[in-house]
Amino acid sequence: MAKKDKGSKGSKKERRERRFLPQSATRPLNVKVLGGLGAALLGAGAWAQFGRAVMGVDLPPYPFAPWVLAGGATLFGAAVWLGTSGEPAVRVGTGGIALEKGELRRMPWYGVDSIAWDNERDALKITGKDEAGREMSVSLTARSHPQACAWILKEARDRIPKQVEAPDEPRGVPQPAQEGQVIVLDPVQVVGQHCMASKTSILYEPDARLCPKCERIYHKLHVPDECVCGASLAGMRVTADSA
User: Fold this and answer.
1) Domain residues for 135?
2) Calculated CA dihedral for residues 59, 60, 62, 67, nearest 10 degrees
3) Is 102 a residue whose pLDDT tops 90?
4) Contact by Cβ (8 Å): 186, 15
5) What CATH number does the domain containing 179 carry?
6) In terms of pTM, does the model score above 0.90?
């Protein structure tokens, strides 16, 4: 009986990532105060405009009602605008770092060149290449994306520590918490890809081996003892005789 070929150790594990929405850069108290004042003025303006009709009083609305309504709408709109961030949602997990800007653009862990901390902006700057090999740069501030920054540092230190150039506790970045929407990812599509060590084409899924840390793809006959990211790949290689 033919010996059943084992897949890579990382390929059988469920792939997941967390989705983080941006936070407003404006202080929450300011947003709440503006929103509260706007709502109060809208209520007062609505009563001044329609209250007499509701009560059955045969008198016209107060002349200042439109101005109160306009002021309330302006303050409420300002609160909504200040409370909304223009930064994209960020995903962090097994598949790397992804931004939701119209379409999803992902930088896999093996595509990351550097992760550095900007002390002046309290921001995390990531440079590298996306899945298509195009240059990609990501800049996330601790104020807008505190948990995304925390999870990026946590995952990167575990998967690609050589690329991380950031202090242990950057200012404004909390400890990773169980926050964000958890999303289950599809398995890596390996057929048609090329081995990152030998450039050999992967014609069949069982021929592929994935690094459990950065998800670099290798052909089973050309797996190195150690991945570029530093992860041990001992035992993944299959000899030509046993293939």
Assistant:
1) 15-24+88-185
2) 170
3) no
4) yes
5) 2.30.29
6) no
pLDDT of the residue at 6 = 44
* pLDDT number for residue 10: 39
pLDDT tier, 16 (very low <50, low <70, confident <90, very high otherwise): very high
**119-123 long-range contacts, Cβ below 8 Å, gap at least 24?**
119/171, 122/170, 122/171, 122/172
- Looking at residue 114, its amino acid is S
Spatial contact of 194 and 201, defined as CB atoms under 8 Å apart: yes
Is 148 found in the same domain as 51?
no
Distance CA 209, CA 181 (A): 29
**Strand 181-185 versus strand 164-165 pairing type:** unpaired
> Cβ-count burial of 122 within 10 angstroms (0-12 exposed, 13-18 middle, 19+ buried)?
middle
* Euclidean distance between CA atoms 127 and 135, whole angstroms: 8
Q: How many domains does the chain have?
A: 2
Q: Give the strand pairing for 123-129 and 135-141.
A: antiparallel
